[in-house]
Design goal:
This protein has 403 residues and is of the alpha/beta class. The chain folds into two domains: 174 residues, Flavin prenyltransferase-like (Rossmann fold), CATH 3.40.50.1950; 199 residues, 3-Layer(aba) Sandwich (Rossmann fold). The protein is built from 13 helices and 19 strands. The strands form five sheets. Strands 12-11-8-13-16-17-18-19 form an eight-stranded mixed β-sheet, with helices on both faces. The protein has a five-stranded parallel β-sheet with strand order 2-1-3-4-5, with helices on both faces. Helix 12 links the parallel strand 16 and strand 17. Helix 8 crosses helix 9 and helix 9 packs across helix 13. The radius of gyration is 25 Å and the shape is elongated. The two termini are 30 Å apart.
Length: 403
């Protein structure tokens, strides 16, 4: 089940060439279980047909404030009341001006005036139009009305110009929608998360590492941001996109990760060590590539710093230390090993997961974990997407904070 299941989204489309892009957004919302109703301005209908949007949304498309169909329902009032969130994308310069001045001269504008829930606005227009003082003043005005503006991207336009004004990517909008529905129970927290693997070089082309992809750590970063936290993500090598609004520090080795973690502690209130840090590194890294046939049959290793253990030791010596959460990726004796690490490393919470299964191991999109906390509580979290599992972990953290 998606975090957006059964949410009612009212999707306003205006007259911009970028209208063709949002057809996939409607499909994406429906895949996550949303109920989507589309409202189109007269100009939008010139770029993409209402028939297309009706087929994709599974609902009738509304275009006329004075429609002859069920006029007694007062469509602009009913539609505003029946939906959880209004998303306007693409939002043209004309529509932004309408919203800024409170005009009620088409169906979408009147719905916006009648909406009491979150309103997300995604500008899309030529870069000169976007940067014009009148447009910027109108954007500032609707922001002051409480509307959330999702900044457009920079790039080449359909007209050939290049600059700010391109419709933003779907993932940025998805995160904004999730944030609108998420509890803001981490709003005062400074969260530090480590994610991904580390790589320990043997020579310029070889290294020791592990199969971690960083998916769980990145999901924790995204969901903490959704819940209002200020998030710093210290990531080993990963091919994932950094979640919107998250500060990311890229590292490679365990020593680099250790240095960045310790340097970030002063302002941090919660530390989550989700990275799969290499326990060992080559004792003598080679400056040049070791040729085939010349390498020794053994590779001497030395231990890397245990970052989580060091944090736990600092916590013992500090009256005010961040809440400390660790991970135990185990292939056997999961709960026994998790409980041992919880005590030995002086943690507030440990997340124990089985890395041997195809649904819960490295690179999987789902996870099944057990949460053990310092007070003896144990929670079994069923198989969920890593995003949903991350929310369950934050639920447990907020309970600790309250206690």
């Amino acid at each position: 089940m998606s975090l957006l299941t059964d949410k009612k989204i009212l999707f306003g489309i205006t007259g911009s060439i970028a209208a063709y892009k949002v057809a996939d957004w409607v499909r994406a919302l429906r895949r996550e279980g949303c109920q989507v109703t589309v409202v189109m301005t007269e100009s939008a209908c010139r770029f993409i047909s209402p028939l297309t949007m009706a087929a994709l949304s599974g609902n009738p498309v509304h275009t006329d404030m004075f429609s002859a169909i069920a006029p007694e329902t007062i469509p602009h009032i009913t539609l505003a009341k029946e939906h959880d969130l209004l998303l306007i994308a693409p939002a043209s310069a004309q529509t932004i001006a309408r919203l800024a001045h409170g005009l009620a001269d088409n169906l979408l504008a009147t719905i916006a005036l009648a909406s009491s829930g979150p309103v997300l606005v995604c500008p899309a227009m030529n870069s000169v139009m976007f940067q014009h003082p009148a447009t910027q003043a109108n954007i500032a005005a609707i922001r002051s009305h409480g509307y959330q503006i999702i900044k457009p991207d920079c790039g080449k336009m359909a007209c050939g110009d290049e600059g700010p004004g391109r419709l933003t990517e779907w993932e940025n909008v998805r995160q904004a929608i999730l944030t609108a529905f998420a509890p803001q129970d981490l709003a005062n927290e400074q969260v530090l998360i480590t994610a991904g693997p580390t790589r320990e070089p043997f020579d310029p082309v070889r290294f020791l590492s592990n199969p971690s992809t960083g998916k769980m750590g990145y999901a924790l970063a995204a969901t903490a941001r959704q819940r209002g936290a200020t998030v710093t993500l210290i990531s080993g090598p990963a091919s994932l996109n950094v979640p919107p609004g998250v500060r990311c520090i890229q590292v490679t080795t365990a020593a680099e990760m250790q240095a960045q973690v310790m340097a970030s502690l002063e302002t941090t209130t919660i530390v989550v060590k989700a990275a799969a840090v290499s326990d060992y590194r080559p004792a003598e890294p080679q400056a040049h590539k070791v040729k085939k046939g010349k390498a020794a049959l053994s590779l001497p290793l030395i231990a890397n710093p245990d970052i989580l253990k060091e944090l736990g030791e600092r916590k013992r010596d500090s009256a005010k230390f961040p809440v400390l959460i660790g991970f135990a990726a185990e292939s056997r004796d999961h709960l026994k090993e998790g409980a041992r690490k919880l005590q030995e490393k002086n943690l507030d919470l440990i997340v124990v997961n089985d890395i041997s299964g195809t649904e819960t191991g490295f690179a999987a999109d789902t996870n099944r974990v057990t949460l053990l906390d310092r007070n003896g509580a144990q929670e079994e979290v069923p198989l969920l997407s890593k995003e949903e599992a991350a929310h369950r972990i934050w639920d447990a953290v907020t309970r600790l904070l309250e206690a």
